[in-house]
Design a protein that fits this description.
Blueprint (H helix, E strand, L loop, with lengths): L2 H12 L6 E5 L2 E7 L3 H9 L7 E9 L7 E10 L2 E10 L5 E3 L8 H12 L2 E3 L39 H4 L8
Parallel strand pairs: 2-5, 6-7
Antiparallel strand pairs: 1-2, 3-4, 4-5
């Protein structure tokens, strides 16, 4: 397999009914797949002949107030030949659930836990989906755009800094 374009062609060949949205910007290819078919697409890429992709990163984006609200982003890297491919799956805000890819890449374990902890996106089939960064009794998911900003006064000697709520501009509510 040679290049990200070949990866896209492989997806179109193997998963004919898959609705792909492909973009290229500055030489990087992004493939957006339906969330329900993301696992099959990622498995087809992992099993593709001629390259062995590594899951380099897995993260999420909160697009609030837009719907679908979340994007789960998988960064795949192949070393021989060198290929980089970004695969995204969009999820609605109310039911943010995806299939876990820990069966494809065991290293996804902690990455999925981090996305769950920070964004509240659940991964079905994950072997132990628990918080990884925040305390177990923490309420909410701090990287969601609707997570309330909190502030705590800090004592400084000779200088009193402004609290974040007086510095951060207020944006008008979106309709």
């Amino acid at each position: 397999m040679s290049g990200a374009g070949a990866c896209v062609a492989l997806l179109r060949e193997r998963l004919r009914d898959l609705d792909l949205d492909v973009t290229e910007f500055r030489g990087e290819v992004t493939v957006i797949v339906p969330a329900a078919q993301a696992f099959e697409a990622l498995r087809a890429l992992r099993d593709a002949p001629g390259w062995t992709p590594v899951l380099t990163d897995l993260t999420a984006i909160d697009r609030f107030p837009a719907e679908p609200r979340f994007e789960v982003v998988y960064l795949l890297t192949g070393y021989s030949p060198p290929v980089r491919l970004r695969v995204k799956a969009r999820l609605p805000g109310e039911v943010a659930v995806m299939a876990s890819v820990t069966g494809l890449w065991p290293g996804a374990n902690w990455l999925e836990r981090e996305v769950y902890d920070m964004f509240g996106i659940r991964f079905e089939g994950h072997p132990g989906l628990t918080r990884i960064l925040m305390p177990d009794d923490w309420e909410g998911h701090p990287l969601r755009k609707d997570f309330p900003l909190t502030e705590e006064p800090v004592q400084f000697s000779g200088h009193t800094p402004k609290v974040p709520s007086t510095i951060i501009p207020k944006s008008p509510p979106r309709r």
